[in-house]
């Protein structure tokens, strides 16, 4: 029983450490941010591409039929063929997910770059302030200077 209690206590210490909590918050925010990127691609970027290419283009339903079920005579849509058990190469869904990934990676890159630039700016400012501020004169040196000045008189 004491081993189990020790194990649970060790797990609790591990789980509530700052890094673990930060990671959990990051994962939650990342999941929500991923949904924002999905919506950006689906609701904004893909309609613009459809408009430019002239037509209602929905990449998620683009596919190549590799093998239809034997005797299949139904509609040749992605949903119907998929439900019937056809072998499909769903390249359109892959392209959409790839666009999502590239956008997400670009946004994360921009955020990391901004954070790194801010850190570098703060570090440079601290270096400038450290170099600009003269080191305080030690008490013994100040005392020796006073004695020197008195002897000159």
UniProtKB/TrEMBL annotation:
Subunit organization: Homopentamer.
Pfam families, sorted: MscL (PF01741)
Species assigned in the record: Pollutimonas harenae
GO cellular component terms attached to this protein's record: plasma membrane
Keyword Transmembrane helix (UniProt): yes
UniProt similarity note: Belongs to the MscL family.
Family matches, as InterPro entries: Mechanosensitive_channel_CS, MS_channel, MSC/AndL, MscL_channel
Full protein name: Large-conductance mechanosensitive channel
Membrane topology: Multi-pass membrane protein
Gene that produces this protein: mscL
Superkingdom of origin organism: Bacteria
Keywords assigned by UniProt, alphabetized: Cell inner membrane, Cell membrane, Ion channel, Ion transport, Membrane, Transmembrane, Transmembrane helix, Transport
Transmembrane segments: 20-37, 44-66, 86-112
Location in the cell: Cell inner membrane; Cell membrane
């Amino acid at each position: 029983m004491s081993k189990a209690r020790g194990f649970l206590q060790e797990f609790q210490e591990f789980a509530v450490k700052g890094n673990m909590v930060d990671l959990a918050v990051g994962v939650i925010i990342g999941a929500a941010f991923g949904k924002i990127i999905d919506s950006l691609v689906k609701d904004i970027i893909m309609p613009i591409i459809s408009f430019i290419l002239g037509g209602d283009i929905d990449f998620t339903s683009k596919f190549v039929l590799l093998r239809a079920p034997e005797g299949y005579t139904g509609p040749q849509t992605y949903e119907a063929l998929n439900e019937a058990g056809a072998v499909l190469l769903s390249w359109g869904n892959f392209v959409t997910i790839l666009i999502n990934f590239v956008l997400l990676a670009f946004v994360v890159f921009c955020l990391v770059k901004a954070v790194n630039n801010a850190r570098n700016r703060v570090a440079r400012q601290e270096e400038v302030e450290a170099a600009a501020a003269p080191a305080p004169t030690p008490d013994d040196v100040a005392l020796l200077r006073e004695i020197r000045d008195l002897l000159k008189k």
